[in-house]
Design brief:
Layout: E1 6-12, E2 18-24, H1 35-50, E3 54-61, E4 66-68, H2 73-81, H3 87-104, E5 110-114, E6 117-118, H4 121-128, E7 131-134, E8 139-140, H5 155-158, H6 166-173, H7 179-184, E9 190-191, H8 197-205, H9 213-224, H10 227-230, H11 240-252, H12 257-266, H13 272-283, H14 286-298, H15 304-321, H16 324-333, H17 351-358
Parallel strand pairs: 2-3, 3-5, 4-6, 5-7, 6-8, 7-9
Antiparallel strand pairs: 1-2
Helix pairs in contact: 1-3, 2-3, 2-16, 3-4, 3-15, 6-14
Length: 370
């Protein structure tokens, strides 16, 4: 791994306390995560958790476009094309989910500064953070239906925390959320302007960070909600999700996936926001839509460890037999934007085909030891 794929520093704070700062530094790939980045981050977290002088960890991204747009999609595609099978893809997903789970269980606060695009692997880092800061450039989405995957990195667990029907709608339509959308949904905790990120990092060094998890969370919350920051984000666009929630819930309040999708596709609202959502569903993988429905049915039943085991099994089966390879080919590799999905409609997907995705991929799930 090039040394500059991650920028790592220890911020020296007051009273000999320190804060670890990891900057994803691959702006040409929208800071997408490689396997080496995942492994390096995991090692750093282990080191910093064991270091009593390090009280907190911060994640940010380089550039104006993205915090992190996902995983190393080309490497995953090459793995699925390999004569050996998707060995690398399986290792990548396992390592990524282990890192995400580690972040959820980390004994010290993790703060993510979500400036720009947050998707896929970036969303995993976001979900695993204990305090999340958006900016006017934040664009959060789970658009995996468009590449024949499903919203993973722990999103199965997040679904049950969102207003009824919203997770399903977001996943089926790849709906993009703004800063105020994410705050309304409790996906983020506060917003600042992107121009103030460096000032916030400077302020962090001027404080004493403690051994108590919640006290440090309270302090970072106090800092980012000061008038200096808050006054500048008052004029950010209102939450579209909040405004449209009743309509979203009316569209998704059904007992069958086919009916939900029919409601969305036949909705005649000509607002561009709805039009984009309809187009994403129309172009997306029908198999992915069924996997998304399966996620929603299982969300409330699974604890966090079970979620990552459940998602890893789905992810591995998708790399072995599913639409993921074709989705990446069409959107990323050949860029013809004409994926040839295995089934051409949501109604035509057989139950047995989805069951193949949920059948155990191994004798024992690799994440059994979490």
């Amino acid at each position: 791994m090039p040394d500059d794929e991650l920028l790592v520093e220890l911020l020296e704070c007051q009273n000999n306390t320190r804060v670890g700062h990891i900057t994803l530094n691959s702006p040409e790939t929208l800071n997408s995560l490689t396997l080496n980045m995942v492994n390096k981050i995991s090692i750093l977290l282990d080191e910093w958790e064991a270091d009593p002088s390090v009280k907190m960890v911060i994640f940010s991204g380089t550039g104006e476009k993205a915090f992190c747009a996902g995983g190393d999609i080309r490497a995953l595609y090459e793995s699925m094309c390999s004569s050996e099978g998707p060995v690398f893809a399986e290792k990548f997903f396992e390592s990524e989910y282990r890192l995400d789970y580690k972040m959820h269980k980390f004994s010290k606060p993790i703060v993510s500064i979500l400036d720009g695009i947050v998707m896929g692997g970036g969303a995993g880092l976001m979900f695993g953070s204990s305090y999340r800061i958006s900016t006017e450039r934040t664009k959060f989405a789970m658009p995996e239906i468009g590449v024949g995957l499903f919203p993973d990195v722990g999103f199965t667990s997040v679904i049950k925390t969102l207003p009824d029907g919203l997770g399903l709608y977001m996943m089926l339509t790849a709906t993009q959320l703004s800063a105020k959308d994410t705050i309304f949904c409790n996906l983020t905790d506060a917003s600042i302007k992107s121009e103030d990120i460096n000032y916030l990092l400077s302020e962090i060094t001027e404080n004493i960070w403690l051994d108590e998890f919640q006290e440090n969370i309270d302090l970072i919350g106090y800092l980012v909600k000061q008038n200096f920051y808050a006054d500048k984000v008052k004029d950010l666009p209102d939450s579209k999700i909040e405004k449209e929630l009743d309509e979203i819930q009316a569209l998704t309040n059904e007992q069958e996936l086919e009916k939900v999708c029919s409601n969305i596709l036949s909705n005649h609202n000509d607002d561009d926001w709805y039009v984009r959502g309809r187009n994403s569903l129309k172009k997306g993988s029908p198999s992915s839509a069924h996997l998304i429905w399966h996620q929603c049915l299982n969300s409330a039943k699974l604890d966090l460890k079970e979620v990552f085991k459940f998602e890893l099994n789905l992810a591995i089966q998708v790399t072995r037999i599913g639409d993921f390879k074709e989705g990446i080919r069409a959107l990323i590799i050949d860029k013809d934007n004409s994926p040839k999905w295995r089934y051409d409609s949501i109604e035509s997907v057989p139950i047995d085909w989805i069951k193949k995705h949920t059948d155990p991929a191994w004798q024992q799930n690799p994440l059994e030891d979490l």
